[in-house]
Amino acid sequence: MPRVEQVPRVHKVLVSRCLLGHRVRYDGGVQPAEDILARWAAEGRVVPVCPEVEGGLPTPRPRAEIPGGQGADVLDGSARVRTRDGDDVTAPYLEGARLCLDLAARHGIRIAVMKARSPSCGNHETYDGTFTATRVTGEGVAAAALRRAGVRVFNEDELDAAQAALAELDTTSDHT
């Protein structure tokens, strides 16, 4: 009987749609895709997501920040996501985070590349909620939810580190 070669499963990566050139940013703009992201897309690894749009917000939309807290605080119910005009947009942010978790579970995702400083996707910094472009250490709502679920979250400035983490995952995990 001939031997059947087993093809390894390709590990998927959750990627912010704005980093893939989709016009989903709050201002309707795009962020150019990097070579690494284009290669991952060609390899069938990319699962695109915009937590804010998937959560029900339009494009364009008012800028939003988390006054007095971070994404984990929003998940825990002790902070809200608000626009400059004070409108509470917490529910769509929570829904977007939930949908990111669903995608991660469905595709076995353990690595994400998300938009830096976003109130959804930021993984090291966000803005302080004063709408003065003041950065603070912290993470967005979807990034916090993903991290809590064991997904390693990188941003567009950390693509080399994300690529190294993916290569490690490819070589150390069971592909069956």
Question: What can you see in these coordinates?
Answer:
The protein is α/β, with parallel strands linked by helices. The protein has one domain (43-171). 33% of the residues lie in helices and 15% in strands. The protein contains six helices and eight strands, in the order E-H-E-H-E-H-E-H-E-E-E-H-E-H. It has a four-stranded parallel sheet with strand order 2-1-5-8, with helices on both faces. A two-stranded antiparallel sheet has the order 3-4. A two-stranded antiparallel sheet has the order 6-7. Helix 1 links the parallel strand 1 (13-16) and strand 2 (46-49). The chain starts with 12 loop residues before the first strand and ends with a helix. The mean pLDDT is 91.
Write the layout of secondary structure elements.
Layout: E1 13-16, H1 35-42, E2 46-49, H2 51-54, E3 64-65, H3 71-76, E4 82-83, H4 90-107, E5 111-114, E6 125-127, E7 135-137, H5 141-148, E8 152-155, H6 159-172
Parallel strand pairs: 1-2, 1-5, 5-8
Antiparallel strand pairs: 3-4, 6-7
Helix pairs in contact: 4-5
Short description:
By secondary structure, the chain is an alpha/beta fold. It has helices at 35-42, 51-54, 71-76, 90-107, 141-148, 159-172; strands at residues 13-16, 46-49, 64-65, 82-83, 111-114, 125-127, 135-137, 152-155.
Annotation keywords:
alpha/beta; 4-stranded parallel beta sheet; 176 residues; globular; two-stranded antiparallel ribbon
Query: Number of helical runs?
Result: 6
Kindly report how far apart the N and C termini lie. Answer: 21 Å
Q: Which consecutive residue ranges, at least 5 long each, have pLDDT under 50?
A: none
Summarize the helix and strand pattern as letters.
EHEHEHEHEEEHEH
Strand content: 5-15%
Structural class: alpha/beta
Largest sheet: 4 strands, parallel
Kindly report the spatial arrangement of strands forming the biggest sheet: 2-1-5-8
Helical residue percent?
25-40%
Outline: globular
DSSP strand tally: 8
The overall average pLDDT, rounded, is 91
Tally of separate domains: 1
